Amino acid sequence: MAGxxxxxxxxxxxxxxxxxxxxxxxxxxxxxxxxxxxxxxxxRGPRGNRLLxxxxxxxxxxxxxxxxxxxxxxxxxxxVADNIDxxxxxxxxxxxxxxxxxxxxxxxxxxxxxxHDRGYPALLDINDGVxxxxxxxxxxxxxxxxxxxxxERAEIAHLRVVGRPRVDLTPQPAPAAVADPGxxxxxxxxxxxxxxxxxxxxxAVVGLGGAGSVISEYLALLGVGELVLIDxxxxxxxxxxxxVGARRTDALTWLRDEKRPAFVRAIGDGFAKHKVYIARRVxxxxxxxxxxxxxxxxxxxxxxxxxxxxxxxxxxxxxSALVRRLVNSITxxxxxxxxxxxxxxxxxxxxxxxxxxxxxxxxxxxxCLQCNGLIPAWKLTEEATSPEQRKRQRYIDDEDVHAPSVIxxxxxxxxxxxxxxxxxxxxLVEPDVSRDHWVSYYPMSDDVVxxxxxxxxxxxxxxxxxxxxxxxVPLPVVPRPADV
Length: 484
Ligand SMILES: [Zn+2]
Ligand SMILES: [Zn+2]
Known about the structure:
It is a single chain. Helix 5 runs parallel beside helix 7 and helix 5 runs parallel beside helix 13. This protein has 13 helices and 19 strands. The chain is 31% helix and 25% strand. One zinc ion binds at residues 98, 100, 109, 112, 136.
């Protein structure tokens, strides 16, 4: 059975740590062939389906990976059986891996393909129709062959390593790109290829207040192709000094003046412009090419949350523990890197006691916001209660209400956040940098503090139950007090 080709694109996503281990195993410098198996969760989406590498099983040379009867080497029947059993138990896709020589391009041999034809129909059966297939690597290229239910078969033509730097591998080198001359100063840093990467990027910004509005404008100016902007809030006159591009007319300040009757103010409140539409206007002024999806709703609505699942990166600039928990889960469950940004001014008895802004870029699989105490249970509980209940038990630290804030703090965090992302996808970070970058800036003491996030074993947010499981595990979208 040769299988019929399908049109849906399939790709593979893995973490920087997994890639380092796999690359060192396949290319130890001996010029020989080596093997492995990847067990993968699945994420299906409008931009293509992704296989999310959950486990990496390296085949021991001479034990699990041995001389073949027909080809040069093969995985032993025992190693294949052990791995397909785990896949079948956990509903994971199975990918056998080996390497060829060469650098920038790679393809399966006739012998490789013949072995797929002989073996994969049975494996697909054992795996209960969950895809099985193979990848073949050169040092800078990958090709893949995937077998699906109903005799369908797909080519895997892209593998992404969501680390620092980000790595994208294809079967052949990508054709040369020619960037818009308007980006001349930028292409001198990132090259025409880098500009093409930006143009092909789909990036989400959750929260379009002080920090998010700055991030959104930066992304549009940089030439990012597609933005997904999510925020349920309308602009308020107290936001005007911080939201980039906001006009006084957007806030309907003349209707919302305290001297007006209540019903007039209510009209003003109900018709002030949504922050996402202000951000969209700013983005379109910054870039003629950018495509903007502006969503004036809560990201906790399941259909809105799903819009994040095919983005290349998520900037989280909303100050809500429920939203933080959601984006944190998506990062580790769907292998989508994210950056949480924020700024905070603490005031005690009318005196400013602490000022800081923070940018936390998180790589999938590393220590998460929950592991590091940044999703407090009391705040989840607080937010999950009804607005009336919340009003009754308003907590002191309610950022939504009268939190002091200033645009410069937001801009520092926004710049760091976008810069870290840009360096990672532009391939400009040096190889020995840490995979995450959490940095806080304290202007009162002039300190810049970098934190290496801790990873807590058994964490429910980034651990085995959720990590790389993709569509198999529900997202924490519906806020319920019992759920915290
Ligand atoms: Zn081969
Ligand atoms: Zn965690």
